[in-house]
Amino acid sequence: MNLLQMDHLTKRFGTFELKDISVALPPGYICGLVGQNGAGKTTLLHLILGLYQADEGSILIDGMDYRTEEKQIRDRIGTVLAEDLFDPSMTLIGNADWYGKYYTGYSRQRMERYLSRFRLERRRKFGRLSQGEKQKCQFAFALSHDAKLLVLDEPAGNFDPDFREAFFQELKAFIQDGTRSVILATHLTQDLDRMADHIIYLENGDQIFAGDIENLRERYRMVSGEAYQIRRIAPERVIYLEEKRYGARALVAHSRLNHYDGRLAVCAPTIEELMYGYAHRTCGVQQRIDGGVNGSS
Questions:
Q1: pLDDT band at 288, cuts 50/70/90?
Q2: pTM for the complete prediction?
Q3: Residue 185's beta-bridge partner residues?
Q4: Which H or E element spans position 164?
Q5: How far apart are CA 4 and CA 33, in angstroms?
């Protein structure tokens, strides 16, 4: 059973529409959620957390529907959001004990262990923390109540480099037993390149990619060299071509049957290169939700 299942999910806010989102995330994976500001990332996270109700489509968390099993779903989700979720006048452990009452798996001992590991003083007032420390505290609490799904909204951007590395190690440990997963919205795509298993890429409310990151990478290549050499590639395969004074580079659709001029440098794209290529794609190239490109190979 998938830990997260979204089918044709749509949500409208005035002129903005998050439309036809379909994602299947099995347990044991880290899923990166990426896109430019205004792409719909926060809207999608709020749908996953049950803070918004979809206008169309369905969403299941661990096989359960918010309409009938909201309490059980919330018990299984740990969150780190940009908003301050805790009472600023209470201590860190006081906040954890207060909100922990709503989670059947909450452990004070586990919370204290994570606070110590993250170098946070348990008796310090939450309101006196820096933004990065507040998100560390939220992360400690998310790990303290035995959640099955972590939903994290841009936490790493507020962490110092040393803790950011520790943060990603904690995520790897969280999914290690194969029963739990993570959804991580972030603009730090280089971190996702080395640790994410799945990716969801949104653009202006549209789902561009969704699925296994290695399968998605296999669909594309970054090609660099002389512009005339790149222009020999079938035009319907070229998603984006950038020409400069001393050469050119392109994002192209790829399959194992494709061959390239031996003078071209060819490599799998990074997430950032995929995003940049699609954001500047050539008019006429058609996108598909599964990450492919319509046209001949």
A1: very low
A2: 0.88
A3: 33, 153
A4: helix 161-175
A5: 14
